[in-house]
Structures are given as C-alpha cells and as structure tokens.
Specification:
Layout: E1 5-6, E2 12-15, E3 18-20, H1 26-37, E4 43-44, H2 45-52, H3 63-80, E5 86-90, E6 93-97, H4 104-120, H5 124-135, H6 149-176, H7 180-189, H8 198-210, H9 214-230, H10 234-249, H11 278-287, E7 292-297, H12 304-314, E8 323-327, H13 339-349, H14 360-371, E9 377-383, H15 386-389, E10 400-405, H16 413-416, E11 419-422, H17 428-439, H18 442-445, H19 447-455, H20 461-472, H21 479-486, H22 491-495, H23 505-514, H24 518-526, E12 535-536, H25 537-544, H26 548-560, E13 572-573, H27 577-585, H28 590-615, H29 639-648, H30 650-660, H31 669-684, H32 689-703, H33 710-726, H34 730-746, H35 750-766, H36 770-787, H37 790-806, H38 810-827, H39 830-846, H40 850-867, H41 870-886, H42 890-906, H43 910-926, H44 930-947, H45 949-964, H46 975-983
Parallel strand pairs: 7-10, 7-11, 8-9, 9-10
Antiparallel strand pairs: 1-2, 2-3, 4-6, 5-6, 12-13
Helix pairs in contact: 1-3, 2-6, 4-5, 4-6, 5-6, 6-8, 7-8, 8-9, 8-10, 9-10, 10-14, 13-14, 17-19, 17-20, 19-21, 24-26, 25-26, 25-28, 28-29, 28-31, 29-31, 30-31, 30-32, 31-32, 31-33, 32-33, 33-34, 33-35, 34-35, 35-36, 35-37, 36-37, 37-38, 37-39, 38-39, 39-40, 39-41, 40-41, 41-42, 41-43, ...
Amino acid sequence: MEIRFAILGPTAVLVDGRLNEEWGALKLRALLGALLARPGSSLPSTELVDWIWGAGDELPNDPTQALYLYASRIRRFLKKSGTDVDIFVDNRNFRLDVDPLSIDYFQFREQLHRARVEARRGEHHRALDLITDAFRMWRQQPLADAAGDSADAWRRRVTKNVLLPAYDTLFAQQLAVGEADAVITRLDELDVDHRSHLALVKRRLQALYALSRHDEATEEFLAVHKALRVDFDDIGARDLREFHDGLQENKPTAAPRVVAARRPNQLPPPLLKLVGHENLLAWLDSVTTTPCLVVVDGPGGVGKTARVVHWAHSRLDRFPDGVLFADLHGFSDSPTVDAAAVVDQFLEALGGVPDRVPDRGRRAARLQAQLNGRQVLVVLDNAGHTDQVRPLLPLLSSSVVIVTSRSHLSGLAVRHAPHRFTVKPLDTDQSVRLLSEHIGPRATTQPRELRDLTDRCGGLPLGLATLANYIAIRPLTSLTDFVDQLNELTLLDLGAIGDGANHGLRAVFGQSVRALAPEAQRLFRLLGAHPGPDFGVGVAAALLDAEPRHARLVLDALVEAHLLEQQGPLGRFKFHDLVKEYAVGLMMSADEHHDAESRVLSYYFRSAENADKAVFPTQARVRTDPAFATHHVAEFTDEVSARLWCLTEMANLMAVIHSFSTRGHGEMRVQLAQLVNLAGQPLLRHGAFPEVLALLQAGYAAVAHEESSIEPQADALQAIATLHLLRRNFAEAEHYAHLAHIKYRLIEDEVGIAACLHTTARIMVETGNTLMGIDSHERALRVVRRTGETGLEITFLYRAAEAYQKAAEYGKAAAYYREALSLARDLGDTTAEGRVLTLLGSLSFDKEQTAEARDFLYEGLRLLERAHDLGTAAMACHGLARVELEFGRVREAVEYGRQALRLSRRAFDPKVEGDSLETLAEALQRRGHRDAAIEAYEQARDIFDDLDPDRARETRRLLNILVTRTVDLPSVRTDTDVQQQRVNPHGR
C-alpha cells in the first residue's frame, strides 16, 4: 500500500507522487503528526497542547483556538492536495480518520510483522529483505516537528517497544544468513545504549563469536554483566550469563539453542453477550502490534476482564505462539497469587516442568528465554497492586502484556510507561440494550419501566447482569413490579441473594474496600454521610480530623482504587451512585453516623461563616454556635475566593440542609438555618437569586416548627423578605418582614427589629410612600445606633439618603451619604464605599453637577468591580451612560449602557435593566441606529409593564413617536431642559 503520510521524521504528506516535508508551518506539521500517531482516536485540546508545544515554547493566549485555526489550515491543504482525509473537531476533541496503513509508522510495524512471520517459517533471506525495506522508511527521529512532553513520551515508547525490537529482528536475520559483520557495524552506528537492551547485547555477543572475536565477546559480556549486578537486575544478569555460557559451549555455530514450546491458550470462555466499549477493542488493536504493556483499569463490575477476554479470543491469529492467562486474585476473597506462582503456571503451560528447576531465579530466567522471540499474549487479570505485577514484567518484555485491575496501578508509570485505558460505565442506551437482550420480549412492551430499571444500575454491567438474572427467572412478572420492588430494596440487596451472594455488587465493592489501608477504609465509610453530589478535600479532612494534605493522599488512594471518581478539578471528588449506596451501608453504628454528619455540617457551617466574613467584613455577624468545631475548615484570603467557594458548594449546601433537617437532628436545625444566611449573602453577589431563595426557604423549613428556635426563624424570615425586596416582589417582602418583626419583638432583638424597620422603609419608598418611608428609615437608624452595629449603620444611612434624594431633599441626602462614606472608609469596607460613591454620583447628576457625578461614578465602579457587586455596578454603569450622554459622548454612552444592561440581567435587577434599556435607546437613537433603539424601547416597555405602569405608558409614548415618524436627534441639554426634567425625573 502506498504511503500517503509519514511521521518517521518530519511530518510529510504525499503530494504529486512524493512525500513533501515542507507543506506547512512547523505547528501545523506538529498537529498533523500528533493526530497521525493516534489515527482514529479523539485527542482533547489539552492533550494536544502537550504534544505540540515544548517547555521553551510560548503558548498562545488561547491554545484551543490556535488548534482550531491549525486544523482548519490543515484541512484546506489536505483538500487542495486531493487527499480524502479530514480532521473532525467535536467539543474540543480532535480526530483524524485515516487508514493506519497509509502512514509510514504503521506500515513499518506491519512489514516488521511480516518479516517475523517469514523468519518463523525459516525464510531468513525473505525476512531480511522485508525488514531492510522497512528500515528505509525510518528517515529521522519520529514526529520530529512535535516538541511537547507527550511527543517525547511517545518517541520513548516507540524506541523501546518498536524500534529496538525491530533491530533485534534485523540482527537475528543477518546472523541467520551469515552477515555477522553487518550486525556489528549497525550496532556501532546505533544512537542508543544497546547495553540497556539485553536482546541487542545478546545479538552483539552472537556476532562476535560468529566472527571468532571471543576475547572481545567475553570482555563485552563481563562489562554488561557487572552493570546489571550493580543495578540489582539479578534475573537479567543470570539470563545473560547462561546465554554467554551457551555461546562458549557452541562456538562453531554461535547460535543459542531454543527449546520447543507448546502453543497454550489459557483464556477463560468468552461471554456471549457484550454491549458497548467498542472503542476499547479498537484501541487494543492499535497498541498491541508490538511487545508492550497495557493496563486496563476501572471500577469493580464495569466489565474489564470480560472485554479483554472477548478481544483476545477474537485476535488469536495475531498471537500464533499462544495466550497465557493468570488471575492474580488481587481483589478477591481468595489468597493473592504471587509472581513465583505465575512463573510456574506459565512455564508449565509452555511445556516446561518447573519442579526440575528448584531455584526460583532460574525458573524466571527459563520463562524469559522461552518467551523471547515468540508472539505470545499474556493477560494478568485482577491485579491488586503494582508490586504484584512488577516482578513479572522483565520476564514478559518480549510479549504483549495486558493487566486488568480495579486500581490505576500508577506505580507502573515511572519505569514501564504502559498504555492505559480506563473502562467507564455504559451509557443509558447501551445499558438498555444490554438489559433488553437478557430479559426478552418484556423489554419491548414496557420501555419506560425498562429505562427506569437500567438507571438503577448506573451503567455497571455486573449490576445489569444481576438485575437481568433476577428478572429472567421470573418470566411472568411485569417490569412494573420490579420497579416497585426496587423502590423498597436496592440493587445491592438483589445481588446478595442466592448463589450470587459472593459475586454480586456488594461482594465486588467489599473486595475493593478490604484491599484498602485501614484509614482509607474509614474515610470511605464516613464519606457515606456526605449528602451532596460531590465534595472537596476539606470535607475529608474534617471527617478524618486530619490536615488537608494528608486527607488528599487518602482520597487519592480511593481514586486509585476506583471507589471515587475525579472528573473535573483535582480538588473535587464524587461517588458512583451504587458505590455511594454501599458506603452508606458500611457505617458501623448510629453514633458514628451522627458524628460524621455533625462533622460535615460543622465543616460547611464554619466555612460559610469564614466566607461571609471575607465578603462582608464589617457587617453584623449571624449569631453562631461556639460549640461548633473551627478546625479543618475552608479559609479565604480574599473576597473572590470566598464567593467562588460558595458557588462551588451551592449544591452541597442545599443537600446538607434538605438531608439533615429531615433526619431528626433537632440540635442541628438552628445551625442549618444559620448556615443558609451565612452562605446565601455571598451568593447574592453573583446574582444567584433563585438559588439563594431556595436555600433560605429550606433553612426556614428546618426550624419553622421548633419553639426554641425563634431567633433563627426570624433571621430566615428577614433574609427572605430582603431577597423579595431585591427582586421587587414588594407584597411578599412586606409579608415576610412583618412576620420577622413579630418574632424579633418576642425576643427583644434590637438588631433584628432595626433590620425589619429598614426593610419596611425601603418597601414604602419603592412603592411611592416616600415620606412614611423616610420616617421609618429614621426610626431604624435610631435603633441601630443604639446597638453599635456600625456595618448596618452604613447601609441604613445610604438607604435613608436615597429616600431623601427621591423626595428632592438634596442637602439631607448629601449629609447622610457623606456620613456613610466616612464610616465605610474608617472600617475599610470597599463594597459599601463603592455603593455610596455610586449613589453620590446619582445625587450630583440630579443636582446638575455632571462632572462631579462622573468622578463619583468612576471611582465607585472601580471599587464595585473589585468587589464583584453586580447590582450596584450596573447602577454605576447606567449613571455613567447618562453622564456621557449629557456630555454628548454618544458612543461612550452606548458602551456604558450595554454594560449596565449585561450586569443588571446577571444581578436579576429588572428596575436597573429597564432604566438601562431606556438610556441605551436614547443613545442609539442619537447615533442613528433607529431599529436598535426601537428594540431597546420595546424591551424596556415590557419590563415596566410589570414594574411601573406610569413608566410603561411614557416608554410606550416614546416608542410610538420613534416608530411613526423620524425624530430629530436631540442636542446636548441646556439648563432650561434640566429644569424641565426636574418636573419629570425620567426626562420625558
């Protein structure tokens, strides 16, 4: 087959009958080379970065976007050159669908395979011709254009697993046809330390003896033998000595004696029905063309062994010298199988008699000699840990070795660089198909129940097989009955019934857990008390009462054992649903379960308190229980990290509140309600109003019926009232504020009473009852000043100032604003300072002091951006839009108007959103963008229809004018215009 692509050197493409190495820029050649090295495989952009850019390269600002651009250019070149090969990009994954045999590297491996077949037939001249032709494809260093770490790792694997074994085959054929001098010449030219590759050392010794250079051969042997002993490779040293001794005994022929061996097949029978993981089978085809180490890992019950055995049965022709299989019982109730037992088992399968060689080391060397030069597949199944496998690997280096394990076997990566594939659970469609094939016609008549049943199995083939067997032996029962039964029992219960009790999911998970160290077993058990969808290192540290660094190591052990999943950030972990169910059932006692839940709640409670302090350093604190533990909790150095923690843990906070409040933990309910208030306020900064409202309602429900919990009830009600006020749901806000006020009066809580008065005052002002609102603001100020809560006083001052500003009492408003600003600066509260500066800008604009307004608004926006206060930042941007429009800077007004619109929508503030749309419409109209202005007015009209009917009528009037006739662009307003606008504050 003609070579169309080449990666054994710079990446080349066949153009006009020749391979062109200069068809594109370096990074384009590197990208195409990386995809050609893994044809048909999807490579994520993050992995491709490690192929293409080296340590000294400067990465683009957006590497993924750069890869998209490179792929587009490569695609155009391939199309232009008449190549029907395309690069597919899907969700940041890149794939090149191409026949591997059109690539020189894979043709090289195919020709090498053909040469070895001819050699086994005794056709050494034919074999030598084939392999010589194959080596002509090898131009330079493979993937010469790719400079990244992944490319370097690939080159090392190719050198170790393909190139050096290929040289071994070449030298064997040269020796067989009497070209010993060519072997020495080629070995001297090799740019590798052939002494590190024992097979090449043997070929050199053979060649030296064939050329009667006995002394030189002995000197070479002694040097390599000494180096092996220094490296503690006793097996290699012993093997080399035996080989050299054989050469000395047979100097005339200089050929080692090979013992005839059987062609074993130790594979267990294949399963008849397998669904899914076709990509694993194709991947095994691509990586096992030469001797290599493959690790197939995954959680217990996911079907690793079944799929490897199925693949091996279907590929027996690729391993003409047999298949060796050993179950190492690494995760089993039976004793584990050590390396020595595996050696004896394999020797016996190959026709040897292990008992004749009493020394273990010599038996190991005999196995290595038996396998050398033969095409054998070795499957080491169910490995428990790295040390169970590592002693065998040097003996099996000439074979394809596949290891299956529930552990990642990360320890093998350092010295052996295995190919690795993690088997994931089946998706829903695959699970439905597998269950359908087992249970027959009932699957087609009840599709909804079938899907419900498969969902209970979480994609684990063992769970599906357990359920299928349970259903199959009850042929007259409808699937609906099984669904109802699983609402009472669990799949783990079904798997523990009858003959499958030792093989079901509960047994499989139990074997995995028992293989862990005691501390990892304990953490696995305690994590069952965590109710949320995922968790961080901090929760594990709290459960273990250990430092986070140590907790991470224990979590890593659970990930290594596939008992936890880690699909996103390094610090986040989650259970498979069935594994979580098993962990919950391991809790030793009710006291242990209660203690674990208390630690989980303590972690989230104190962490949320720290987040609240970081975001609102000067605000009055929610009253918390001093008995709660304060160690092993999240701590924050700045406001941004605190808010990010709250966002990340939102689902867990909801789960903790819902779960623990319904389990009879009466002493926890007060803390649950407080937890809501602590976590909710930082979340509001991100505009998470619906989520915070759900949190608040859950927190109130936790304490609503506790007569001794009036204070947390009032806190929750007041928080709900404030949230409804922010959403401009005034009726609901007034209702909840009234309920909170009643409860605060029952316990004579002046801070709470002041907060309720303040909320009520804001409702009055917002609904047009400004004078009564001012009176309520003054009452709230008097109460809060008695409490000494300076943080609250700042808020009360600027809210009262807003009311005075709305009543056109500008002097009183300015005095309160400046008092609030002074207090905020004294306390170092940048958020409050930014808000007050924004409001001062609004006041200055109303007083026609436009330049001063712009200064206030610029400074306020700078502080608010730092604090990520979206709602007030939207107000500042809207104010700046109005200021720029006043100065006639229409383009800048449009920019600020659009920014105000974006922020107000993120902050769920419809009032500022409507104001921003009106100002933006006016600016767009001045710029001549009539259609865009009409659209902005229409959106503002729809908002004000719900909020303010008077504003809606005025907006509709302006919209009708703009739609029905051409409106002259207004000029910069004059003092007279400003005076007229005082009468109509909306400028209409």
